[in-house]
């Protein structure tokens, strides 16, 4: 039997200025760090330019690392309506790039991320970052937005772990990361 | 001298439920109707599904009609923050599709559209639609969102007419629509 391709999750934390991303592989019950970083738009650039930077970089990430699934942080509306609009635009552009590359997209709220990664919804941002470092055995702490991207990817992995185990995650164990 | 390709403008009015579009050609000082319509997302569909419908349809429009430039209505924030976020997402997806197809994107406010098409910023929506029908010599009134798409395309045409004339719009007169 051919071993199935391991699940590779691209987590994205969209922002109007900076979009964080993190990619992890799921091998059995283990999560393995692949890459993480930030996409920064140019301040004062026109909207089309900023959107172009987001879609082109995400498109390139998908082409290079070939994730099998994407998870995006479900944002909440900001007190500032103009900021909410800009955040929506950045988020729409990021999801557009994922959809155009044919990736299934899942959404998780910040509460779901905290519950999955730290175990409780009231965890501080620093606790989430700390757990990301521990779970992925990183030698240093990634930049905040990159850590958020990794935390979203981990959330998808952890929430689907039970299900995957039931469906026979042992198949995945025979994958190329063994 | 080879006649230059006529300017073909794709006007887009993004909305969370319906995205209107209109395409016109500019031949000298004339604007010629090409096509218009609406992209409707499926109510209750998940976000990725709705964004997929927007990007795929706009991408297909650009591939089919090959506009040379795009003009998008600059929206203003809504009183409802959740609606503002959703509108931002739809708008971000639409602009992402245009940018990925390599189109230059211009933005115009509703005020600029009214000033350009009707001649005054306080014009009612119906006056804008009436002028769209007159200017493009349409035999019927297009659907409201499609008319808005055409109005945005006309705005780009009218605002750039003076400039084009100075740069020698007579070249365009020799184009394939003569």
Automatic annotation (TrEMBL), chains A, B:
<dbReference type="InterPro" id="IPR020563">
    <property type="entry name" value="X-over_junc_endoDNase_Mg_BS"/>
</dbReference>
<keyword id="KW-0238">DNA-binding</keyword>
<dbReference type="GO" id="GO:0005737">
    <property type="term" value="C:cytoplasm"/>
</dbReference>
<dbReference type="InterPro" id="IPR002176">
    <property type="entry name" value="X-over_junc_endoDNase_RuvC"/>
</dbReference>
<keyword id="KW-0234">DNA repair</keyword>
<keyword id="KW-0460">Magnesium</keyword>
<dbReference type="GO" id="GO:0008821">
    <property type="term" value="F:crossover junction DNA endonuclease activity"/>
</dbReference>
<feature type="binding site">
    <location>
        <position position="73"/>
    </location>
    <ligand>
        <name>Mg(2+) 2</name>
    </ligand>
</feature>
<protein>
    <recommendedName>
        <fullName>Crossover junction endodeoxyribonuclease RuvC</fullName>
        <ecNumber>3.1.21.10</ecNumber>
    </recommendedName>
</protein>
<dbReference type="GO" id="GO:0003677">
    <property type="term" value="F:DNA binding"/>
</dbReference>
<comment type="subunit">
    <text>Homodimer which binds Holliday junction (HJ) DNA. The HJ becomes 2-fold symmetrical on binding to RuvC with unstacked arms; it has a different conformation from HJ DNA in complex with RuvA. In the full resolvosome a probable DNA-RuvA(4)-RuvB(12)-RuvC(2) complex forms which resolves the HJ.</text>
</comment>
<keyword id="KW-0233">DNA recombination</keyword>
<feature type="active site">
    <location>
        <position position="13"/>
    </location>
</feature>
<keyword id="KW-0540">Nuclease</keyword>
<keyword id="KW-0255">Endonuclease</keyword>
<keyword id="KW-0378">Hydrolase</keyword>
<dbReference type="InterPro" id="IPR012337">
    <property type="entry name" value="RNaseH-like_sf"/>
</dbReference>
<feature type="active site">
    <location>
        <position position="73"/>
    </location>
</feature>
<dbReference type="GO" id="GO:0000287">
    <property type="term" value="F:magnesium ion binding"/>
</dbReference>
<dbReference type="GO" id="GO:0048476">
    <property type="term" value="C:Holliday junction resolvase complex"/>
</dbReference>
<comment type="similarity">
    <text>Belongs to the RuvC family.</text>
</comment>
<keyword id="KW-0479">Metal-binding</keyword>
<keyword id="KW-0963">Cytoplasm</keyword>
<feature type="active site">
    <location>
        <position position="145"/>
    </location>
</feature>
<keyword id="KW-0227">DNA damage</keyword>
<dbReference type="InterPro" id="IPR036397">
    <property type="entry name" value="RNaseH_sf"/>
</dbReference>
<dbReference type="GO" id="GO:0006310">
    <property type="term" value="P:DNA recombination"/>
</dbReference>
<comment type="function">
    <text>The RuvA-RuvB-RuvC complex processes Holliday junction (HJ) DNA during genetic recombination and DNA repair. Endonuclease that resolves HJ intermediates. Cleaves cruciform DNA by making single-stranded nicks across the HJ at symmetrical positions within the homologous arms, yielding a 5'-phosphate and a 3'-hydroxyl group; requires a central core of homology in the junction. The consensus cleavage sequence is 5'-(A/T)TT(C/G)-3'. Cleavage occurs on the 3'-side of the TT dinucleotide at the point of strand exchange.</text>
</comment>
<feature type="binding site">
    <location>
        <position position="13"/>
    </location>
    <ligand>
        <name>Mg(2+) 1</name>
    </ligand>
</feature>
<dbReference type="Pfam" id="PF02075">
    <property type="entry name" value="RuvC"/>
</dbReference>
<dbReference type="GO" id="GO:0006281">
    <property type="term" value="P:DNA repair"/>
</dbReference>
<feature type="binding site">
    <location>
        <position position="145"/>
    </location>
    <ligand>
        <name>Mg(2+) 1</name>
    </ligand>
</feature>
């Amino acid at each position: 039997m051919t071993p199935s391709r391991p699940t590779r999750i691209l987590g994205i934390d969209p922002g109007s200025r900076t979009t964080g991303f993190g990619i992890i592989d799921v091998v059995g019950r283990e999560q393995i760090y692949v890459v993480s970083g930030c996409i920064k738009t140019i301040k004062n650039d026109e909207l089309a330019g900023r959107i172009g930077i987001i879609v082109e970089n995400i498109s390139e990430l998908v082409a290079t690392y070939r994730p099998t699934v994407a998870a995006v942080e479900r944002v909440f509306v900001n007190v500032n309506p103009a900021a909410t609009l800009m955040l929506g635009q950045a988020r729409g552009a990021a999801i557009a790039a994922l959809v155009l590359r044919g990736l299934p997209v899942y959404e998780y709220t910040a509460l779901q991320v905290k519950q999955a990664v730290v175990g409780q919804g009231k965890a501080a941002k620093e606790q989430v970052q700390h757990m990301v470092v521990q779970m992925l055995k990183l030698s240093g702490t990634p930049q905040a937005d990159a850590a958020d991207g990794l935390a979203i990817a981990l959330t998808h992995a952890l929430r689907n772990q039970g299900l995957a185990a039931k469906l026979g995650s042992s198949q995945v164990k025979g994958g190329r990361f063994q």
